[in-house]
Amino acid sequence: MRIAVIADVHGNLYALQAVLADVRRHGVERVFCAGDLVGYGPQPGEAIALLKEERIPTVMGNYDDAIGHGRLICGCDYKDPADLRLAEKSIEFTLWATTDGDRAYLRSLPADLRLDYGGKSLVVVHGSPLRLNEYLHADTPAETLEMMLDRAGADVLVCGHTHVPYHRQVGARHVINAGSVGKPKHGNPNALYCVLDLAGPNVAATFVEVSYDVEKTARLIEQDPVLPAEFAAGLRQGW
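Given the sequence above, the corresponding structure tokens read:
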């Protein structure tokens, strides 16, 4: 079985459209989304509508939780007060740019998605199996990842939230971060997603970069009176 996992769309409709078109070319059997459909990007409602139209199973991200429940903070770990102020602008815009129906959909999203295939248990979360805003980094200690795999009851745990892709093998089990579609932090502006191959005894993770019209999204950000121009600059640089 080949599965595509997308994550951290963050209201970037054009990146999402490009990724979904690319996913179709890979002949995958299932597509899952590891959350954070909204925040930072200029088209949150349109991104939600496309994922609903495509009927892609999606977990709740920390931004989905914040917007769905009308919270004024997104639960991110901001060390710099300037970053916190930018995030507050993002929340302000996204609450305005989403409908009651959009927010009800975000509130309805589950904490995890589960699939059993060929004796392997796959679990998709946003942050960690414990908290949707917890970061599992590529250098998170193996014993912590083992505990997370145990708590999830997973052979393969797929997450997002950090926006940086990786594949860690912990004993016979795996932790995989799918990267980010709409707010990549891997050093270039391309959208990114993950294809998992669960056939056979091994688990293979392929990270796929997809180019799209970054300027189109960046200009929408710059034209908005609320969204900070820093978000456009971040897209162009891969944050």
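The radius of gyration is 17 Å. Try to locate this feature in the token string yourself.
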